[in-house]
Amino acid sequence: MNLNTLYYLNVFLGSGAIVLQILSVVALFLLFFIPKEKNRNFYLDFIDKHFLVLSFLISLFASVFPLVYSEVANFLPCYLCWWQRIFMFPLVLMFGVALWDKDRRVVRYAMPLLSVGFLLSVYQNFFYYFGQNSNLPCDASGVSCYQKLVSVFGGYISIPMLALTAFFALLSLLSVAHFYKKEI
Q1: How does it sit in the membrane (predicted)?
Q2: Which of 16, 84, 86, 172 maximizes the CB count within 10 A of its CB?
Q3: Could you report the per-residue pLDDT of 100-155, keeping only the tens digit for each?
Q4: Can you give the three-state secondary structure of 79-91, one letter per residue?
């Protein structure tokens, strides 16, 4: 993959991540901080109605693009990235089957995977952004996400931030699906 293509891929994914972060924060804010009135919230209604499709698409993109980075761009994943993949990859199948069967109970089964993946991602991002140029917690094999292979929008968007965004967006969608009640 040439550098120009890689740059545009990074900008595309970074832009999508920022939009997804904003939409997720708005959804959680509306869900937990806006009092429920007689008027329905169209944004939360949309998420509640289509959360299976949205969750499947986000988990699919969050599984395909790390493979593009590792297999096409030859950015080898670090130890923590592998652990996050372990918790993200099965979600594509879970949300795919749930979408096929229109099974909203997938929230119960996906939430533990998402929670552990999210905590790993928070841990990795903490050391990535606030660690003092250390290679920890990545292993000593030379593979480290601290090489800053992806750094767009002033360094805000990185591979760890893309993973954190995916986990956060999926947790937000499942929170809306679980807590947003049909009756007011």
Answers
A1: Multi-pass membrane protein
A2: 84
A3: 999 999 999 999 999 999 999 999 888 888 876 555 555 555 556 666 677 788 88
A4: HHHHHHHHHHHHH
